[in-house]
Specification:
Helix content: 40-55%
Distance between the termini: 8 Å
Mean pLDDT: 85
Number of strands: 5
Oligomer: single chain
Structural class: alpha+beta
Shape: globular
Strand order of the largest sheet: 2-1-5-4-3
Radius of gyration: 16 Å
Strand content: 15-25%
Largest sheet: 5 strands, antiparallel
Order of helices and strands: HHHHHHHEEHEEEH
Length: about 200
């Protein structure tokens, strides 16, 4: 099982090089090591060209977007019933297909989504409650003024993923660069972590 493989000597090394939030004090050490390994796994997966292309294109498309336009898009998302024609592309584009592929290859990821540098969703595995994420503290903490900050939350019930979970947050960086181009959130099912 892939999660068991994540807990290795390498994960102990990674824990010293990966930034985690103050919430890590409330997560048992055994889960902490697995979380760090999962964040490292995602960091590697997020270097995929489908993801980077989608995020960079979204950044270009939204380069001059106004706050009013963002609010209009977010309001449209909030009132959408189910997965309509406005929401469907976020769940079916090439970037979203790659996120689903990550879920298929690695057990435990209940939800994964990625935003551009404005905090607008680019692709996702599940319909989120809103389109605009930059007004959330987790997003601003991860964006970290464009520097990026990898961290995780506490164990809690996640409405979108419909499971008891821990959310991990990662900056999306340009290939072979430290430049942060977007932000990702992945929700990891706690049951899968506890069974490792």
């Amino acid at each position: 099982m892939w999660i068991m493989n994540c807990v290795s000597a390498l994960s102990i090394l990674l824990i010293t090089t990966t930034s985690v939030s103050a919430d890590s004090a409330t997560v048992p050490q055994s889960l902490e090591r697995i979380l760090v390994s999962n964040m490292k796994l995602l960091e590697s997966e997020f270097k995929n060209s489908e993801i980077l292309t989608a995020v960079i294109n979204s950044n270009k498309n939204h380069a001059n977007i106004s706050k009013a336009e963002i609010q209009e898009l977010d309001a449209r998302w909030a009132v959408a019933k189910g997965v309509n024609d406005f929401i469907k592309p976020y769940l079916t584009n090439d970037c979203a297909k790659f996120l689903v592929d990550i879920q298929d290859r690695h057990d435990g990821f209940a939800e994964i989504f990625i935003t551009d540098n404005h905090g607008l969703n680019v692709c996702q595995t599940n319909k989120t409650s809103d389109l605009y994420q930059a007004d959330e503290s987790w997003w601003s903490d991860t964006w970290n003024g464009g520097v990026g900050n990898q961290h995780h939350g506490q164990i809690e019930y996640d409405e979108s993923a419909r499971s008891e979970a821990i959310a991990v947050y990662l900056p999306i960086r340009a290939l072979n660069s430290e430049q942060v181009v977007g932000v990702a959130k992945a929700v990891i099912d706690v049951t899968a972590l506890k069974s490792a």
